[in-house]
């Protein structure tokens, strides 16, 4: 708890780009529709579970805490995430 909806989305997307295992530590009987929408976002889960299995890395960081993360995918494309900290 304690994260805003936008922070929760960013958190989940970072885990996905890093190819981290997706474990849930929340009570599914009280899950909000917002949280469920994050956890069931097919595009984000697909990036996490991509067959190539290569973890993403931070590619760039600006002086004002904007970061670019990237990860190669099995089909030859790449996933990218811009984070404004």
Gross morphology = flat
Number of helical elements:
3
> Which structural class should the secondary elements be placed in?
alpha+beta
Strand content: 15-25%
Sheet having the most strands? 3 strands, antiparallel
Note the main attributes of this structure:
single chain, three-stranded antiparallel beta sheet, alpha+beta, flat, 85 residues, 22% strand
Describe this entry's structure for a reader.
The protein has helices at 5-17, 33-39, 42-48, and strands spanning 57-61, 66-72, 78-84. The mean pLDDT is 94. It has a three-stranded antiparallel beta sheet with strand order 1-2-3, covered by helices on one side. The chain is flat and about 40 Å long. The chain is built from three helices and three strands. With 85 residues, the protein is an alpha+beta fold.
Task: Describe the secondary structure blueprint for this structure.
Blueprint: H1 5-17, H2 33-39, H3 42-48, E1 57-61, E2 66-72, E3 78-84
Antiparallel strand pairs: 1-2, 2-3
Write a brief structural summary.
By secondary structure, the chain is of the alpha+beta class. The chain is built from three helices and three strands, in the order αααβββ.
């Amino acid at each position: 708890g304690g994260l805003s909806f936008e922070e929760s989305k960013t958190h989940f997307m970072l885990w996905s780009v890093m190819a981290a295992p997706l474990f849930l530590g929340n009570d599914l009987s009280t899950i909000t529709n917002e949280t469920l929408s994050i956890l069931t976002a097919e595009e984000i889960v697909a990036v996490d579970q991509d067959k190539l299995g290569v973890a993403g890395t931070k590619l760039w960081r600006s002086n004002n805490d904007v970061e670019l993360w990237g990860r190669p995918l099995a089909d030859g494309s790449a996933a990218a995430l811009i984070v404004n900290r």
